[in-house]
Amino acid sequence: MAVRKPPSKAGGILLGLGLGGFIDGIVLHQILQWHHMVSATAEHPTDTLAGLEVNTLVDGFFHLVMWVLVLSASIATIRAWRQGRLAPNWSFHFGLVIAGWGIFNVVEGLIDHQILRIHHVRDDLGGPLLWDLGFLVVSVLLVLAGWLLHRRGLAALEREPAGRR
User: Which of 4, 6, 22, 126 has its Cβ near the most Cβ atoms within 10 Å?
Assistant: First the structure.
């Protein structure tokens, strides 16, 4: 019996990136209304109708990009199956999803909050730095926890007898 290729990591990482963005957009932008994509810019304040309209439009484009990431995750997963790769176990897959969520948050936190300064975690409070730093710490912990869970799943796959793969 031929040895099958290990599961692809692409689907889990892409799904984590997309779902992480959806969590950010749905929870922080829409439900809690702590910030929007460009809510820290002087040109688009959220306390004016025109500013809120621009922020809502940019949030919509942000969600569209997250949708493309989730779609890409589905395509990568189907490609892996069609290539005859092994199916991932729960730890392998969800570890990558959690790591992808953390990676999204780290990149978004560094670029949008610190470099571009187009919004902060709590623009509704004036954008205090401690919220941004706390967001980054939690995000790094998500990456680490996700990667450890993924590695546990990978080790379990490697221990399986070849016939069960």
Answer: 22
**SS3 call for 16:** helix
State yes or no: pLDDT of 162 exceeds 90: no
- Say which residues have a Cβ less than 8 Å from residue 86's Cβ, sequence separation at least 6: 4, 5, 6, 7, 157, 165
Mean per-residue pLDDT for 1-10? 81
Q: How far apart are CA 47 and CA 126, in angstroms?
A: 13
Asked if residues 147 and 99 have their Cβ atoms less than 8 Å apart, the reply is yes
Global pTM reads 0.91
**Each residue of 146-160: b (16+ CB within 10 Å) or e?**
bbebbeebbeebeee
Distance of CA 23 to the CA centre of its chain: 8
**What is the spatial distance between Cα 92 and Cα 154, in angstroms, rounded to a whole number?**
6
Q: Give the span between the Cα atoms of 15 and 105, in whole angstroms.
A: 13
